[in-house]
Write a structure and sequence with these properties.
alpha+beta, about 25% helix, seven-stranded mixed sheet, single chain, binds zinc ion, 18 strands, 2 domains
Length: about 525
């Protein structure tokens, strides 16, 4: 049995061939985070993938925000599945149950914690020799504590506590538990590129929570585990001293090229499952396409497939189930080759693209009709055999098409609204290659703002940095304060450790306000 977790930074990282992408990841259960798919944006091609059942959790708030999805091979069909951690979203049969003690949360807090599409739980049966076990797989996208929004720190910690309460309740009820996903906290100094640069590294409340939640795998087997948590960080279990093993890098600073990152994506397993069933776990930093890389874990047990998917499966959603069909759906043309319209689009999961796609859905000009036989209702129970190594095709699949490392200025260029401004695109490209860069490649609105500013005013000439003697890049202060909107030059190299001569030097120069 093999699992993969990956923060894909938009479902569009999978491109036009989602089945090929999932097959390339070569796992029975693939958990993805930050799909940026909300119910209004979910299309048949993403929801219904041949050979898999999918289970989505959507943000109820902003469209195109957050979201997680679990894809299970047909040979790994779960017998129960549920969206969210609180149970408040569960009004259907086939739920997982075991909600734990929620008494420290108000009703409003519980509702908010499950409002952003951050958890999907699937429950599976596995076999090892004569033993049949229940394994519950909790796919989570834990909140990030935005330093500009102090109220999100509290939200993040509450999410952790709720996750722990739920996971421990399920474990107590007799199921093994795997928690995997983007946890958004690097645990130890070894999991961070520059822990000394962080004030009070050990005092971070997220790290303190991890300390209590996880069993200390630094300790020797004979150590007293009585004060430790129930769960094991499976990567560290197998690689206790490996340094530089990161899963997330800033695209803003191009830090993937210098491996200046953090390890914030994990596969946690309860101690007994980790000890008895896990045979391997590792990160996959060679897989590009997102600002995170995938992480995989292998278990010696085999999955037993349920005969049909539980009610949460997307194949039962009315828009995909062949029930309550809208008349327009019978009138649309079936596009035999939908890939071609997608291949030249902007960054994965971008907001503008999401809005554009939403409009397409409204007019229903090119919707794939895929309704009957979406759910296979009479699968035979069978066991899954998997290899524990990713396939060679995987690398080719997720390499950026232009061959450049993620986070290069070329990639941030793609965030410009290409479809809307074709006549200006090549002009921008020329300017970009001269050293222009927008401040936040993940935010299209900001990227396009920088783009328009540069087109309207023209960039000032770039100075060269003192250490490398190379042309600098122009950036704009986005942080609210006295300097907001001011522009400055910094070394164009990717951010890296201060000891790395190949990384960004400390050159900094304001652009004069008058220009
Ligand atoms: Zn430099």
């Amino acid at each position: 049995m093999k699992l993969v977790t990956w923060n894909i930074n938009g479902i569009r990282t999978f491109g036009c061939g989602i089945k090929k992408a999932l097959d390339a990841l070569d796992a029975d259960i693939i958990c993805v985070q930050e799909t940026k798919v909300t119910r209004d944006l979910l299309d048949a091609r993403t929801a219904i993938v041949d050979g898999y059942n999918s289970f989505f959790s959507f943000s109820r708030g902003r469209s195109g925000y957050s979201g997680v999805a679990t894809y299970c091979k047909d040979s790994a069909t779960p017998f129960a599945a549920e969206e969210g951690l609180t149970g408040l979203l569960t009004n259907h049969a086939g739920a997982v149950g075991c909600y734990g003690n929620q008494s420290e949360f108000t009703d409003e807090e519980l509702q908010l914690l499950d409002n952003e599409g951050r958890a999907v739980i699937t429950q599976h049966r596995v076999q090892h020799s004569d033993k049949i076990l229940t394994v519950t797989v909790i796919n989570v996208y834990c909140p990030r504590a935005d330093p500009e929004k102090p109220e999100r720190k509290q939200f993040k910690l509450q999410f952790y506590k709720l996750l722990q309460a739920r996971a421990e309740a399920i474990l107590k009820n007799g199921s093994s538990v795997i928690i995997l996903g983007d946890v958004n906290t690097s645990h130890r100094p070894i999991d961070h590129c520059d822990p000394n640069e962080i004030d009070d590294f050990e005092d971070n409340p997220g790290r303190k929570w991890l300390n209590g939640f996880l069993r200390d795998n630094k300790a020797s087997p004979s150590a007293d585990f009585s004060h430790d948590g129930e769960f094991v960080d499976t990567f560290r279990h197998f690689h206790p001293t490996r340094a530089g093993a990161f899963t997330c890098w800033s695209t803003l600073t191009g830090a993937r090229r210098t491996n200046y990152g953090t390890r914030i994506d994990y596969i946690f397993a309860d101690y007994q499952l980790a000890k008895e069933q896990f045979v391997a776990a590792d990160i996959m930093p060679e897989v590009e396409g997102s600002d995170h890389c995938p992480v995989w874990g292998g278990l010696r047990c085999s999955l037993l497939s349920n005969s049909k998917p539980p009610p949460l499966a997307t194949c039962y959603l009315p828009e995909f189930a062949g029930k309550q069909q809208k008349l327009s759906r019978f009138l649309v043309k079936v596009d035999q080759n939908p890939c071609q319209t997608e291949s030249k689009e902007a960054l994965p999961g971008s907001q503008e693209e999401a809005e554009r796609r939403e409009n397409i859905n409204v007019t229903a000009t090119k919707r794939i009709l895929r309704t009957e036989s979406a759910c296979q209702t009479s699968k035979k129970t069978k066991t899954a055999k998997t290899s524990s190594k990713p396939q060679g095709s995987l690398l080719a699949f997720f390499k950026p098409q232009n061959g450049k490392a993620l986070g290069s200025s070329h990639n941030s260029l793609k965030a410009c609204p290409v479809e809307n401004t074709p006549q200006l695109h090549s002009a921008t490209q020329n300017k970009m290659t001269r050293g222009e860069e927008t401040y936040n490649p993940r935010d299209n609105k900001e990227a396009s703002l920088g783009f328009w500013k540069s087109v309207l005013h023209g960039p000032p000439p770039a100075p060269t940095c003192k250490v490398h003697g190379e042309p600098c890049v122009l950036r704009t202060v986005r942080k609210e304060g006295p300097n907001v909107g001011r522009q400055f030059f910094v070394c164009a190299r990717p951010q890296g450790h201060v000891s790395n001569p190949e990384a960004r030097c400390n050159f900094f120069a304001w652009v004069d306000r008058g220009k």
